[in-house]
Design a protein that fits this description.
mainly beta; 2 domains; 3 helices; globular
């Protein structure tokens, strides 16, 4: 049975060309959680209508915690959701395919073919990289994410903070024809190495270098199933933690710190579906599904003490596989429900109670407005304006309007000219002093008129031979400075700024495993960290 579920996992990325020709690739694989988080209500995407979950089954304590998680989307077909209806460690697999439209061009250097590469993320989404491969040479090929025309719906707000370190458009994927391997350089500062499976058209994750410098190694069994995840320090001399996975009629997982997880499956019309998860340090979970046209629609999740989540779906052709309602317990014996109604460019959300909210989105699957109603009457609108061309997927501004569309608050962003997605200016508009009650005027791109004075924050970014520096200041010169070890996420120093003076400073020290071992603080008068007062981290 487990051979059927995970087998050689090649079906994980089997994109059907007929589907690709009719739908955006981002619709098929991207996942709703790469969009703006405000578009998710009760785990339901108000843009796509699918129910999604990211379930973390265990975390192994280490300098960089080892996480084992699953991802569910009611939009997935069983060939994608290979763990009995769920995606499981999709970042461990990569596949390269020709563009289904067979785009190509020829120059004096040779014939170039457009290639698509599908790579999973640990949080469940599958990103599409596009590049041009020269069929007559062994030169290295660069693949990038095209947020403007292919991976539409990608939002730079998906991970919370807006930064070049969280923007997947900065990922760079390199294919080396000589070694038949891939190197994925991540926006976070880490990288992953994928090597070709010896017998199937699939690349497996060999190891990844984390932003801290530590490394995670992956081992697979003969069937191409993930068997061992092992974290080591940068020098590869010390094991920091591990996860082992054993396959039989069920899946048994154990960790270096003694945790266990067991996945149990039941047949449904000949298809094994994940129905029970037993976890040593977290609550057990039970799942019920309905099989509809090769989709395992999650109907109910049961937790201890009578807790549950019940999901109902539409059956009509226009809204097929989309969520109709989500019901959970409320009070001592009652329930509460949130209902969804879908139109071409907006979704109405009803509940809990008498609450009504309308989510509007554009042709690029970006959330552009949330309209709030009380007793059926509009009282507030939250608007979002998104960038185009090189700023595709970047949030340009947000605004708050009253029921008459008068704007009383706005925050706008200006990004760097290196297309990294770093904010260099953040401007807030509104009646910040209490002396100006006039509405704000925006242009069609959501940018306030130049005659309106904002509260301004500026950001600067630069690197030295050993450090990466980020500085944030307001118009009065107050702000904060962050200094990181170059090419890592290890914070070395932090300082509060007042004009040109550092008023207070923090110093951070790490051991060879990247573990923070000391924090030192001074009042900003001294540069030598050894002269500061010593605080326990």
């Amino acid at each position: 049975m487990m051979r059927l579920i995970l087998g050689l996992v090649v079906s994980l990325f089997c994109l059907r060309y007929t589907d690709a020709a009719q739908n955006s690739i981002s619709e098929i694989y991207l996942g709703s959680r790469e969009g703006d988080p405000a578009s998710i209500v009760e785990n339901v995407s108000t843009i796509h209508g699918d129910y999604t979950e990211v379930e973390v089954d265990l975390a192994v304590p280490a300098p960089d915690s080892l996480i084992l998680s699953r991802f569910y989307s009611s939009k997935d077909v069983l060939q994608t959701a290979t763990l009995g209806g769920w995606r499981f460690n999709p970042h461990c697999f990569l596949t390269m395919q020709k563009d289904p439209r067979e785009k190509n061009y020829t120059t004096a250097e040779g014939k170039f073919e457009c290639m698509y590469v599908y790579v999973g993320n640990p949080d469940g989404s599958i990103l599409t990289y596009i590049g041009w491969k020269n069929t007559s040479t062994q030169k290295r090929v660069l693949f990038k994410i095209d947020a403007e025309s292919e991976t539409i719906g990608l939002a730079n707000t998906a991970k919370g903070n807006i930064s070049s370190w969280t923007n997947p458009k900065n990922n760079e994927l390199y294919f080396n024809p000589q070694t038949n391997s891939f190197e994925l350089v991540l926006c976070s500062g880490g990288k992953r190495i994928y090597v070709k499976h010896p017998s199937i058209d699939l690349y497996l994750l060999s190891y990844e270098v984390l932003p801290s410098g530590n490394k995670i190694f992956y081992e697979f069994n003969e069937q191409g199933q993930l068997a061992v995840i092992k974290e080591m320090n940068n020098a590869e001399k010390k094991v920091l933690g591990w996860i082992k996975i054993q396959y039989d009629n069920s899946i048994h997982i154990e960790t270096s710190d003694g945790k266990t997880v067991d996945y149990h499956f039941q047949q449904n019309s000949g298809v094994p579906l994940l129905t029970e998860v037993d976890r040593s340090d977290k609550s057990s979970l039970h799942y019920q599904y309905q099989l509809v046209d090769n989709h395992a629609l999650l109907l109910r999740k049961e937790l201890p003490e009578g807790r549950f989540v019940q999901i109902d779906y539409y059956t009509d052709k226009a809204s097929k596989y989309k969520v109709k309602s989500v019901t959970t317990p409320a009070g001592l014996s009652g329930t509460t429900s949130t209902q969804f109604a879908y139109e071409n460019d907006y979704t109405e959300v009803y509940g809990p109670g008498n609450r009504k909210v309308l989510h509007r989105f554009d042709q690029n699957f970006q959330l552009v407005a949330i309209e709030h109603y009380i007793d059926g009457l509009l009282y507030r609108i939250d608007k979002k304006y998104w960038g185009r061309k090189k700023n595709a997927g970047n949030l340009m501004s947000t605004a708050v309007e009253d029921e008459n569309e008068n704007i009383f608050y706005c925050k706008s962003f200006i990004y760097d000219d290196k297309d990294k997605g770093n904010i260099i200016e953040e401007r807030e508009y509104g009646n910040l002093t209490g002396n100006d009650r006039n509405p704000i005027v925006l242009d069609e791109d959501g940018i306030p008129a130049s005659n309106q004075e904002p509260h301004l924050k500026t950001y600067s970014y630069f690197s030295t031979d050993k450090e990466d520096v980020v500085v944030q200041k307001d118009s009065k010169g107050s702000g904060i400075e962050f200094i990181y070890k170059k090419g890592t996420n290890l914070l070395l120093r932090k300082a509060c700024l007042k004009e040109t003076t550092r008023k207070k400073k923090w110093f951070y020290e790490y051991n060879s495993d990247g573990v923070l071992v000391r924090v030192q603080v001074d009042d900003g008068c001294l540069d030598d960290p050894k002269s500061t007062s010593d605080l326990a981290p």
